[in-house]
Design goal:
With about 90 residues, this protein is an all-beta fold. The protein contains no helices and five strands. It has strands spanning about 10, 15-20, 25-30, 50, 70-75. A hairpin with a 4-residue loop joins strand 1 (about 10) and strand 2 (about 15-20).
């Protein structure tokens, strides 16, 4: 997955709180109303943050709901105009 992401994920582990850092957006496997693990989703870790430009096995993502994968986009910055940023998903078969 590719997108203009926030490179700095500022986390207060003591209080399990997330604070916006400079950047444009983050993509998560959980809604903001749920407790999120700020670690990136990967083959080896079960976090909730979808880090861009990382190959993620389908088995590491949340289960499909009615045949759909649901992810949540968090805005942490402001674009110059609507639609100025693109989220691109690539699916590959091994």
């Amino acid at each position: 997955m590719q997108y203009s992401y926030d490179r700095d994920l500022d986390i207060n582990d003591d209080e399990n709180q997330h604070f916006p850092a400079p950047g444009v957006m983050r993509i998560w496997t959980k809604n903001s109303t749920e407790t999120r693990t700020p670690r990136a989703v990967s083959k080896f870790f079960s976090g909730d943050y979808i880090k861009p430009d990382v190959l993620i096995p389908l088995t590491s993502l949340p289960p499909l709901k009615n045949g759909k994968l649901i992810l949540y986009v968090e805005s942490v910055g402001i674009s110059e105009f609507p639609g100025s940023f693109l989220i691109q998903v690539k699916i590959t078969q091994r």
